[in-house]
Amino acid sequence: MVTTVIPVEPFDLVIFGGTGDLARRKLLPALFQRWRARQMPENARVICVGRQPLSDESYRSRIETSFREFPVPCVEDREALGEFLNGICYARVDVNGSDGWSELRRMLRQDVIRAFYLSVAPSLFGVITAMATEWKLVSPDCRIVVEKPFGHDLASARNLNAELSGRFDERQIYRIDHYLGKETVQNLMALRFGNSLFEPIWNSQYVDHIQISVAESGGIGGRGSYYDEAGAMRDMVQNHLMQLLCLIAMEPPAQFEADAIRDEKLKVIKSLGRVAKDDVVRGQYLSGPGVASYRDECGDPVSETESFVALRVHLDNWRWSGTPFYLRTGKRLRSTLTEVSVAFKDPVHWIFEEQANRKGTSLTIRLQPNEGITMRMTIKDPGPGGMRLTEVPLDMTFAEALGSNAEAMPNAYERLVMDVIRGNQTLFMRGDEVEAAWAWIDPIAAGWADLPGGLYMYDPGSDGPVQSHALLHRDRRDWQGL
Questions:
Q1: Angstrom distance (rounded) from CA 27 to CA 460
Q2: Helix extents (H) in 294-364
């Protein structure tokens, strides 16, 4: 299998927050990999904006040091690294004042694609876009990329959308969720709509239930102040899990085109039914050997913010009526894992009466670790002595199936940044999609505020509070994975 690299057109990419962690750990390493793959043209330019007084040379030296610290793949390719760093410029700009804007304007070229990446706090989105407009940095075809969190609730999301849409057309706005750039997430669409095997049975008639799990073994780390305001529901369910749910449940779009796909995702969100109180389990991790508790890490000894949440949700539409979706996400769990498990119903008539203990067929899509797809099927256990059934996996781990090409697959940010330059919005959220997600989340979170309590503690290194298992046990089901 040969990996095809399609070069993009020349561009100026301006990264606001160029000295921050996201730029150093994700964005610039991703661009370096695309440079090595020769997807970026030689005259592509990256302009990193910050408040510190740095020269181009000192900033490039910092980036090279951080590349080795993390480390970044292929950083020992001295020739490629030198070429890439030479294409990086630094601009000192006061985003709240007038200093630096005129110099930044002089650095921008008129005959190339122009993109602004706002790797900053959401509170600065409106400030930066207003200043960029005032200083005439905004061109008719420029693109603007904004990171999550895109709002804290429906009202704040609407305000952010209004700030952006007041200065940019929707076709220019790229709301980025790095989960959508993962290879396996995109394979959800290829799996469903590129194979006649699955689509005829991708509905409530054949699917018993679907589980979506996003687990992390680490804690909140240095994100305590942000996370204690957001919690697992706002930080993970509103975006990452919601996007996975949409791709799993959406109807086939008329064509593989950005707005056609996003139209179908929006329909999924709008069909989400109201979540009952006993269909939600909230948890918070305790301390353990060498591990601080959530409350210690966030600095609030009485915090009621959830680090774990599990939900039973349903879709009120023709395809999925009667099929429950179970969502869970949490920190300080047994392992780091992101996967979607589709459990199919048993045959309508079971002829193997002596084999009463059966688990059925399931399809598991692993996003991390070891990206791949596994299908568990029932076969006869080899050997004489009657009909004994057993389960076996049909496993396609990308690293094994694709060999060296699996290592060459771009990571999420590599793909998404190149899509911005191409002007392809397929893997980016639209404004109405974000608002619809918040409209569903807000009543759930409001219910917690109105009725405090119901926060279950769990040990670090476990699979969450035991009450999350009861959520499935009452339906005679069990969580998969972890």
A1: 31
A2: 294-298
Tens of pLDDT, residues 257-287: 999 999 999 999 999 999 988 899 999 999 9
Tracing tokens 């999550």 back to the chain, one arrives at 148
Residues 6+ apart with CB under 8 A from 295: 284, 301, 302, 303
Known catalytic residue at 314: no
Span 3-27, pLDDT tens digits: 678 889 999 999 999 999 899 999 9
Place of tokens 């079971």: 350
Question: pLDDT-based confidence at 401, cuts 50/70/90?
Answer: low
Please give the distance of CA 13 from its chain centroid, rounded to a whole number: 22
Q: Which of 340, 339, 381, 344 is nearest to 359 (CA)?
A: 344
Whether this prediction's pTM lies above 0.85 is answered by yes
What is the Cβ-side half-sphere exposure of residue 327, based on CA atoms within 13 angstroms?
Answer: 24
Handedness of CA 12, 16, 22, 25 (dihedral sign): positive
Three-class SS state of 89:
strand
The active-site residue, picked from 152, 178, 209, 240, is 240
